[in-house]
Amino acid sequence: MHFNFNSAEPIYLQVASQIEEAIFTKNYSEKEQIPSTTEISRDFHINPATVLKGINLLVTSGLIEKKRGIGMFVAQGAYEKVVIKRRELFFEDKIVQVVAEAKRLQISEDELIDLIKRGF
Amino acid sequence: MGIEVRNIKKVFNKKTVLRDINFELEAGKIYGLLGRNGAGKSTLLSIIANRIFSDSGEVLLDGESVFENDNALGNMYLMSERNLYPEGMKIEAIFKNTELLYGAFDLGYAQELADKFGLDTSQKFGKLSTGYRSIFKLIIALAVPAKYIFLDEPILGLDANHRELFYRELVDNYVKTQKTFLISTHLIEEITNILEHVFIIDQGEIVVDGDVEAILDKAYLIAGPKEDVDNYCQGLNIIGQENLGSIHGNYIYGSLDDKRILPDTVSIERMDLQKLFVNLTNISVKGGASK
């Protein structure tokens, strides 16, 4: 696992989004065990309470399951959930920004559509 | 349960080192004590651990004064910059002595840490480099059975690899023992994410006392053209400023007013703990910390 932390966002949110990213890219597949809170704390020098807070977000949203005494696992259907969530955010997170940048660069709507087609 | 520090004052040679220090340590957390050189960090830690006396105020552990209280003192351990060990004594002998002093000193764990850090325990204390003196003292601090561990500049002279190893072992130790750590340091960036709660001490006073997350949630950089930025920041707690060409930045500590309209030209960014610390403890700046 590779974590790349910055100061722009609270660390617990970054812990959650990095694990989510790993599920999305299938670095963690469904039903696979993920590192323990302690392991993440130790490897990335993050307070265990902070790591736990991040992981609990994923438990609440049904991406991670805790099995008592065994560890934490990627829940079945987690990948699908991440995909649905990201699709919902795709317009706001990506398209709005691309259009704004295109306008600043005086790229027309038709030109932008052509560029997108070329990118596919 | 925990440690209460109440109204601690200390004057050295007519110079007030600590003005009126009040804070609490809850059991089982990792705390940071941040301050510039000469801010009073070491003095404060020495007073809490009962190594030196305050002029007034008191320190309580689980409600009892630590003053001449053997039970309380057995539960606190201060790793300080001062070297309290005989120069000619071998490391392994000091480990054994510590075991005699503190019944439950974990000799096996100390040896294991020594191996990890590459500390030769047959060496004499006086022969150790600055870095290895720190490492040796850290090993003792991690292996003593005390519940409250105070680390005064623990990474003094440690190279990057050893600092990395130390943070690892610290977290490992904390998870296993649930001890309380109070760590003073000026290398803030590296340790920020390990700390749950911080105290920032400046000129003998605690200017910030809060959970790291909550503190950073109130720390902002407002940047843009000077006029727009100053307009937006009116009445906010400005703790510092920065200029890069025509871009002006105001550092804010405190909540922003959500009703204000943010001009297109102005951006809001977050500040890290190091930046916040620098701005709050910069004497040239007029603004102050709001508690």
From TrEMBL, chain B:
| UniProt cross-references to CDD domains, sorted A to Z | ABC_DR_subfamily_A
InterPro entries on file: AAA+_ATPase, ABC_transporter-like_ATP-bd, P-loop_NTPase
The lineage, from the top, is: Bacteria, Bacillati, Bacillota, Bacilli, Lactobacillales
PROSITE patterns attached to this UniProt entry:
ABC_TRANSPORTER_2
Q: A Gene Ontology MF term for this entry?
A: ATP binding
Name the source organism. Liquorilactobacillus cacaonum DSM 21116
> Which UniProt keywords are present, listed alphabetically?
ATP-binding, Nucleotide-binding
What sequence ranges are listed for the domain ABC transporter? Answer: 3-228
Name the domain of life this protein comes from: Bacteria
Q: Gene3D superfamilies under this entry?
A: P-loop containing nucleotide triphosphate hydrolases
Task: List the PANTHER family.
Answer: ABC TRANSPORTER, ATP-BINDING PROTEIN, SKFA PEPTIDE EXPORT ATP-BINDING PROTEIN SKFE
What is the name listed in the Swiss-Prot or TrEMBL entry for this protein?
A: ABC transporter, ATP-binding protein
